[in-house]
User: What shape does this take?
Amino acid sequence: MNKEFRKMIDSIKSECSGNEESQVALIPHISIDGDALGSATALRQLLLEEGIAADIVVEEILPANFEFLPGFSEIKVLNENEIGSLVAKKKYKCVISIDCGDLKRLGKRSELFCVANLTGNIDHHVTNTINADYTFIEETASSTGEIIFNLFDGDRISKDISLCLYTSIISDTGGFKYGSITRSTCHAIGELISAGINFQDIYSAVFEVTSFEKVKIEGYAAESLELIDGKIAVSFLTLEQIKIAGADD
Assistant: This one.
């Protein structure tokens, strides 16, 4: 395992010693996607395997097609008041920002980060401006999931963590279609598959499963579709259509 990464985990252990209740918060960016969710669940699983309780804290409804991820049902979906209460209590001593380039993209949860005793920052965005006690940024990585894979530095990765990291990488590479893929990415994917994950099912869940509400919305959008000057396609949705489709959340 990467020495600095190992040092962060040991520091978290020291900070939270003697307390069974979770004092670690993992906070991915708002408008959460597969990379953020996969990376967060992978890191939480690693901490659990190290004997450290940790919460993934979000402030939005989660995309249901990622419910196969280990720990998905335990993710804490909180509103602004609930987050504010945790900030006032300084509930979380250790807070790690995941796949996020700046504090604004953490929403209300940025306040959890700012009052923590120990902070971490794991990201692959070149524009990252977050200052933390422990920072792991690889601008050439395809995803934050690939960074976490690299931080293991050859150490064995459990099947559950492999599933999460594969989800992360496949999500942020568009199913291996984007130019961000490198030899390092392909090596990571090969190693994760060798852990015995069902990569076909993961691909299907990420890219082929859609909600009824989304299909309804796409139908409304198609109904209003117009072609302008043979070049520009324009469509629109009304608030009423969004409500009827049940997609107003």
Observations:
- The longest strand covers residues 118-123.
- The longest helix spans residues 34-49.
- The CA atoms of residues 8 and 16 lie 12 Å apart.
- The mean pLDDT is 95.
